[in-house]
Design goal:
The structure holds two protein chains of two kinds. Chain A is mostly helical. Chain A contains seven helices and two strands, in the order βααααααβα. Chain A folds into two domains: 166 residues, no CATH class; 77 residues, no CATH class. Helices cover 61% and strands 2% of the residues of chain A. The longest helix of chain A has 52 residues. Chain B is mostly helical. Chain B is built from eight helices and two strands; from the N terminus they run βαααααααβα. The C terminus of chain B is likely disordered. The chains are: A mainly alpha, B mainly alpha. Chains A and B meet through α4 of A and α5 of B. Chain A: It holds the Pfam family Tetraspanin.
Chain lengths: 336, 344
């Protein structure tokens, strides 16, 4: 008993093949889109690899690029097959390739679903990488003369300006780190000497933040230095001041940016899988004409779902048993 | 003697019509491009209208939008005419208006060329608007409590960060105005009173710049205050310091940005004009090849296509005589009307 049969005459078959061909070309465009999304994501990860501890995994973008190229190839081939479906001479040549192609399509759909799952899961690893990377960035902010770290200051300043954030969790992270290089500190000055001696590690700590933490939306000019000292600034209370510097931490800001990219990529691919692919596989199995002009039937599965499943299991078992039988045959031959 | 005659048989005519139809669809896309360029430019001007003193001229983007819409309409119509030219029954209904349509196309192409030139010329008034607008922008930087100007500070800060510039011509412009609001100045402090007393207008001037002037690539943390006082900072010489704050002035930066946009738009509109001229020439050939059929009933006969029916000189004199005839025709009508009065 075939599954979901539909009766077809020539006109309906032609219309089906044309519709399917159009769907395949839409899928090719979607494949190109997935490919370009993969490249975009790879570039975004590279742009901020300095604040990500340099061990960020490029697995997801590489997989997206691969899947995009595979999708293009597979769907272009499917489109060509559809085009040839309407010509009986070409179709007889294609018939043998039809069944393995559909199995390949099914396998590819499973791969797409896997990629969607990865998109959602890899967000955790990005969160952890960011936390570590930003902590190190803040530590190396002042090392603009150390090779390998000389652009850390610029990267961190630009990140704080672009993502409107300050510090790792909040602006107080800057109070715990010496972010002014010793090159610019006058060690003969009493104030400097006091500060350096006042803590165990001999670091010049202050309750100030870099200029990139400043919020342009603040009505008053930015207060960067002596943030916790109300008496230094006129009409200022650091407990109630909201708009002076950014309140958000950079880890949250950068993570929400990357997680939104990954979530939208995942949603887009699952929409593609759900919509187009199911439709095309459904229509594929139905486009199977033996006689060009007369009526025919199209079905989703040749037998019922349960029967198809038992068939597949039986096939797998025979494959396994086939190997065993061959081994059994071989040993008596060799032994004797 | 027709200008640039080309012989056509049926096959060649069909090919010509198909090519011109294809080109017309490209031209429709080009029209959409011009429309979107106009919209983009309008949005860019609006985004910074505060810095341009709110009297920037939206003439150019409006012209681009209108030309884009007209181009789309004309090209879609031309494409339909080309498509129908292959079918004699359909083409008959378009034939009478084709000559006027071609004249309209020529006029439109001239207007499009003028628009492209306008793109390059409008840079000059923009320069003046920008200079004036920025000067006022800086004056109102501190007025974050005055309605209508409360976002000037944010706009100016974001602009200085985005365009990597400081002040109008350079960072010293900030030394000449008071950019800290009186709300945040302690008038009982001696230092404040000294500064205010030291100049005629009673303004609190300082040799400091806002934080948005800071250059993130500088190896040392940004020095914004007491910039001309070398002794206030360790190992600092303001004469040789290059990377501390942005060196470029914002009027220069904004002008080069908008100038770049206008140059690009002008170049693209020139390319679109060339495409439009090509499709007009193509349509003229389609029209002339179909009207000079050797045997009007037989579609397979040969025909000639030409650019102009007579030579350039003759066409010009024809147009002049036609215009004179139109003028004289009006005069004759007036003269004929007068005798009517005397007869009765």
């Amino acid at each position: 008993m075939p599954f979901l049969t539909v009766k077809f005459n020539l006109q309906k078959r032609v219309k089906l093949a044309q519709g399917l061909w159009l769907i395949y070309w839409l899928s090719v465009i979607l494949g190109i889109m997935i490919f370009s999304l993969g490249i975009f994501f790879k570039i975004e990860l590279r742009k901020r690899s300095e604040v990500m501890d340099n061990i960020e995994s490029h697995l997801v973008p590489n997989l997206l690029i691969l899947v995009g190229m595979l999708a293009c190839g597979l769907n272009a081939f499917g489109g060509k097959m559809c085009h040839d479906c309407l010509d009986p001479m070409k179709f007889s040549k294609m018939k043998s390739m039809l069944k393995p192609f559909m199995l390949l399509s099914c396998g590819f759909n499973i791969l797409l679903l896997l990629v969607v799952l990865l998109c959602f899961l890899m967000q955790f690893s990005i969160y952890l990488t960011l936390a570590e990377g930003l902590k190190n960035s803040i530590r190396f902010y002042k090392d603009t003369d150390t090779p390998g770290r000389c652009f850390m200051k610029r990267t961190l300043d630009m990140t704080q300006i672009e993502f409107r954030c300050c510090g790792n969790n909040n602006f107080r992270d800057w109070f715990e780190v010496q972010w002014i290089s010793n090159r610019y500190l006058d060690m003969n000055n009493d104030v400097v000497k006091d500060r350096v001696l006042s803590n165990v590690e001999g670091k010049y700590l202050m309750d100030s933040v870099p200029f990139s933490c400043c919020n342009p939306g603040s009505p008053r000019p930015c207060i960067q230095h002596h943030l916790t000292n109300n008496s230094v600034h006129y009409d200022y209370d650091h407990r109630t001041e909201e708009l002076n510097i950014w309140n958000r931490g950079c880890r949250e800001a950068v993570f929400s940016y990357y997680s939104s990219i990954m979530t939208s990529i995942g949603v887009l691919i699952s929409a593609d899988v759900a919509g187009l692919k199911y439709l095309s596989t459904t229509l594929e199995t139905m486009a199977d004409p033996e006689n060009p002009e007369c009526e025919s039937e199209g079905w989703l599965l040749e037998k019922g779902v349960k029967e198809t499943f038992t068939d597949m299991l039986a096939k797998l078992k025979t494959l396994g048993r086939g190997n065993q039988v061959q081994e059994g045959e071989n040993t008596p031959e060799v032994a004797t | 003697m027709a200008l640039m005659v080309v012989k056509f048989d049926l096959k060649k005519r069909v090919k010509l019509a198909q090519t011109v139809w294809f080109m017309y669809w490209f031209a429709v896309l080009a029209g959409i491009l011009v429309l979107s360029l106009g919209l983009f430019f309008k949005i860019e001007l609006r985004k910074r209208s505060e810095l341009m003193d709110n009297n920037e001229s939206h003439f150019l983007p409006n012209v681009l939008i209108i030309m884009g819409l007209v181009a789309c309409a004309i090209n879609a119509f031309g494409g339909k005419v080309c498509y129908d030219s292959l079918d004699p029954t359909k083409f008959v209904k378009w034939k009478p208006m084709l000559k006027t349509f071609l004249v309209l196309c020529v006029v439109f192409n001239a207007l499009l060329f003028a628009t492209a030139l306008l793109c390059f010329v409008m840079r000059i008034p923009l320069q003046f608007t920008l200079a004036e607008g920025l000067k006022n922008g800086m004056k109102y930087y501190k007025d974050t409590d005055t309605p209508g100007r409360c976002y000037m500070k944010r706009t100016l800060d974001l602009m200085q960060m985005e365009f990597r510039c400081c002040g109008n011509d350079n960072y010293r412009d900030w030394f000449e105005i008071q950019w800290v609001s009186n709300r945040y100045l302690d008038f009982s402090a001696k230092e404040v009173k000294d500064r205010i007393g030291s100049n005629v207008d009673g303004q609190y001037l300082m040799d400091g710049v806002p934080f948005s002037c800071c250059n993130p690539t500088s190896p040392r943390p940004c020095i914004q205050q007491q910039m001309t006082n070398n002794s206030a900072h360790y190992s600092y010489d303001h004469h040789t310091e290059e990377l501390n704050v942005w060196k470029r002035g914002c009027s220069d930066a904004l002008l080069s940005y908008y100038g770049g946009i206008m140059n690009t738009i002008g170049a693209l509109v020139l390319l679109v004009t060339m495409l439009e001229v090509a499709v007009t020439v193509g349509l003229q050939y389609v029209h002339s090849s179909l009207s000079t059929l050797a045997n009007p009933e037989d579609m397979e006969s040969e025909s000639e296509g030409y650019l102009l029916e007579k030579t350039v000189k003759e066409t010009f004199t024809d147009i002049m005589t036609k215009m004179k005839a139109m003028g004289k025709g009006a005069k004759v009508e007036e003269g004929a009307a007068e005798p009517v009065a005397t007869v009765s």
